[in-house]
Amino acid sequence: VLQISKDDVTALQCKVVCLIQNGNFKEALGVINTHTKVLTSDIIAFEKAYCEYRLNRIENALKTIQSASQQTDKLKELYGQVLYRLERYDDCLAAYRDLIRNSQDEYEEERKTNLSAVVAAQSTWEKVMPEDLGLREATYELCYNSACALIGQGKLNEAMKKLQKAEELCRQSLSEDSDVTEEDIEAELAIIHGQMAYIMQLQGRTEDALQLYNQIIKLKPTDVGLLAVIANNIITINKDQNVFDSKKKVKLTNAEGVEHKLSKKQLQAIEFNKALLAMYTNQADQCRKLSASLQSQSPEHLLPVLIQAAQLCREKQHAKAVGLLQDFADQHPANAAEIKLTMAQLKIAQGSVTKACMILRSIEELQHKPGMVSALVTMYSHEEDIDSAIEVFTQAIQWYQQFQARTNYGCCVFQPKSPVHLSLIREAANFKLKHGRKKEAISDLEELWKQNPKDVHTLAQLISAYSLVDPEKAKVLSKHLPSSDTMSLKVDVDALENSHGATYVRKKAGKLTGDKEQKEQGQGDVKKKKKKKKGKLPKNYDPKVTPDPERWLPMRERSYYRGRKKGKKKDQIGKGTQGSTTAGSSELDASRTASSPPTSPRPGSAAAVSATSNVIPPRHQKPAGAPATKKKQQQKKKKGAKGGW
Asked: How far, in Å, CA of 39 to CA of 505, rounded?
């Protein structure tokens, strides 16, 4: 037909629809753009917008839909999908509500599913409290979307129950089709199991989550978006451990088409983890490149600059890291508090505690917070700068006083202080008392007692402080202490003293009287003498042999010491190159001397000694009166020697 009439509108429309049905969206869009004069926007607006949508040209698809003169139902359906991909969830929600309200056909269930998906996205990415749409969760898609909305609210246990219900419904609906295999069911359940694993990960059950993640990857699902999210979550579990596995999982996040399947925040989280993994694997250039790219995309985001600073710290460039953070804090005052906290941490790591305190005190919105006051006081105390620590307390107390004056303007004179304010005053007083600042602590204690005159503990502290400064004032204040009669403590003293943890246990009355009687009658008591322990004797001690009187002296100082005798055979060893023989080598051969008696006895050989004579050799003789001790001789084996040498 087109060969006969190339501008036939009906034929061109049919050709475009056929190309779309075959998935040739690019070719179909080419036909539409070639015949713009014939195929006007009124005629083929939906087909053109749909081709642009499937080719991920979302902005162009939105313009095509908005330029159409007539908004048909199918254009409105596509309009809702385009708004969802653009993450304009408020407009998308309004579009689907309008569709559900003004249409009645067999696609109502699909529209409700899409509506619940929009609500889930709002809860997850925009932290919007979802409204109850009143949808009956009869399908597993509706249950899944409801579970996602609950995850966004932090209701993890309820979300897990919804996912379990979605899994059950999914198995029921798919098992009714005889053509669906078990593998197909598992592939459809992969996204549900992925959300279950994510909940386990949030609950701290990382081992269970990791096992379920790996099971999903083994199924090799065709959804590249699902694989990318699972791989990213496994990387977050590994952190700086199991880096080799993380590097393999990163490849799944780089699959083609991932950027069209995930939201902007999901893609951003994946890029952040890539930069962190590059830092942990010591790929400094790659880490800097990724973090710089992230910072250019989101200049106000904290994570890119924090990653850059962390990389500089790994390279021992702490000063450069602090400078980078300071520049970011100056450019983005809204995020200065978090950046300055990081700067203070770096200063503490370098040992510059005073500079860290200066940075922390420059954060005006956190100066009065109890946590900040506690940290500053602790650091100043570590540096023994008590005046600065007291100044921190004073500034925080003044801030609360000014805040109370602003909120209670025009009210009565006396105003009760907030619990945080009173807690700061008490901590300041305790700190001053601990460091000997009695006079400064008195004003704080008086303020506390004024707020609560029945506080006996504060009154006792106040009297204790005044006793060192103004004893008369302490006496006056002591009159306000309750009398001992009014302080009736229902405590069993005997039971308390006899308790397991008592440091002092009172003796029983019978034993006390018996001890006194013994002391009165015991004039002739004699203190028991401690028996001396017998000294240990040597194992070879012989009582018949008289001990050597010089045994306590060193061997060299004894009268019978003759010095060490050098070995006679040392001079007989031949000198020269290895393997050469000498004249005396025959004398060292034990085999040749077997027939004749040895010239000297072998060490440790009783037969050799008895063979020569019964005379004891000089080296074995002992001095008169000395104990008979045997000296062990070590038998050293030499290579190449025979006969026990």
From this structure: 105
Q: How far apart are CA 148 and CA 219, in angstroms?
A: 23
Instruction: Calculate the alpha carbon distances from 442 to 152, 387, 438, 445, 470 in Å.
Output: 51, 17, 6, 5, 11
Cα–Cα distance for residue pair 562/556, rounded to 1 Å: 8
The 10s digit of each residue's pLDDT in 63-87 is: 999 988 888 888 999 999 999 999 9
Task: Return d(Cα 122, Cα 621) in angstroms, integer.
Answer: 104
Whole-angstrom distance, CA of residue 380 vs CA of residue 465: 24
Q: How far apart are CA 608 and CA 525, in angstroms?
A: 71
User: DSSP secondary-structure letter at 76?
Assistant: H
Query: pTM surpassing 0.85?
Result: no
- Answer yes or no: are the C-beta atoms of 115 and 100 closer than 8 Å: yes
| Residue owning tokens 């600059």 | 305
| Residues contacting 435, CB < 8 A, separation 6+ | 386
Residue from 122, 85, 545 nearest 133 by CA? 122
What distance in Å separates the CA atoms of residue 223 and residue 213, rounded to the nearest whole number?
14
Lookup: tokens for 337: 């508090």
Alpha-carbon distance 320 to 300, whole Å? Answer: 20
Query: Distance of CA 236 to CAs 148, 210, 392, Å?
Result: 20, 10, 39
Q: Is the pLDDT of residue 630 over 80?
A: no
